[in-house]
Write a structure and sequence with these properties.
56% of the residues lie in helices and 0% in strands. By secondary structure, the protein is mainly alpha-helical.
Length: 91
């Protein structure tokens, strides 16, 4: 599980790649990386029509903090062998 003190986009992507490889035998996360980069650009104000987010709580860090528990739930569910198995297309 990802250490919340080392919460960076790179570390998050590394963890997602690991979980994808374990669950789906592939570690290609290009689409996930593109979406994460888009989110970072949106929060930074680098997207046309969007201003930089300056809220104190619902900021980029908070958004990044949600990702590890979410991917951990998917990973745990799949490893529990309960059905339905969460396929990569949904992940």
């Amino acid at each position: 599980m990802l250490n919340m003190k080392k919460l960076t986009p790179k570390n998050i992507l590394d963890e997602i790649r690991t979980i994808c490889k374990e669950n789906y035998q592939k570690d290609n996360t290009d689409i996930i990386e593109a979406v994460l980069n888009d989110v970072i650009d949106l929060f930074s104000g680098k997207r046309k029509g969007f201003q930089k987010c300056d809220t104190k709580y619902h900021d980029l860090l908070h958004t990044l903090q949600v990702i590890p528990p979410f991917i951990g739930i998917i990973d745990g569910w799949n490893k529990s062998q309960n059905t339905p198995f969460i396929i990569k297309r949904i992940f």
